[in-house]
Design goal:
114 residues; mainly beta; six-stranded mixed sheet; 10 strands; 0% helix; 45% strand
C-alpha cells in the first residue's frame, strides 16, 4: 500500500516562508507526474503546482513567483517551497499523484498565515 505523507506545515506571519515535504516512495522514483494541491475551508480543491518526470513545473497564477516545487528521485521526496506567504494561502496542502486532483493524495499538512 503506497502512501503519500506530507510534512512541514505550520503557522507563519504574512511574508514568511515554509517548506513542505512529501514522502512518495513508489511514485517519485518511478517518475510519475506529481502535484501539490490545497483546500481552504468552504472552497474547492485547487491545484497549486505540478512537476513531471522531466522536472518541468507549472504553477497556478495565484502562486507564481512565490511557490516552487521540486523533486528528489533518489530520496523519493517531493517539495514545495512557499515564499512571501499571504493570508489567502491558508489551507490544507496535499501532495498527489498526477496534476488533476483526482489521483491518490496524502492526509495533508496545514498551512496557516496570519
Amino acid at each position: 500500500h503506497v502512501q503519500l505523507v506530507e510534512s512541514g506545515g505550520g503557522s507563519v506571519q504574512a511574508g514568511g516562508s515554509l517548506r513542505l515535504s512529501c514522502a512518495a516512495p513508489g511514485y517519485i522514483d518511478s517518475n510519475y507526474c506529481m502535484g501539490w494541491f490545497r483546500q481552504a475551508p468552504g472552497k474547492d480543491l485547487e491545484r497549486v503546482t505540478s512537476i513531471d518526470a522531466d522536472r518541468e513545473t507549472s504553477a497556478a497564477d495565484s502562486v507564481k513567483g512565490r511557490f516552487t516545487t521540486s523533486r528528489d528521485n533518489a530520496k523519493k521526496m517531493l517539495y514545495l517551497q512557499l515564499n512571501n506567504l499571504k493570508t489567502e494561502d491558508t489551507a490544507m496542502y496535499y501532495c498527489a499523484l498526477g496534476d488533476t486532483g483526482t489521483g491518490i493524495r496524502g492526509q495533508g499538512t496545514q498551512v496557516t498565515v496570519s
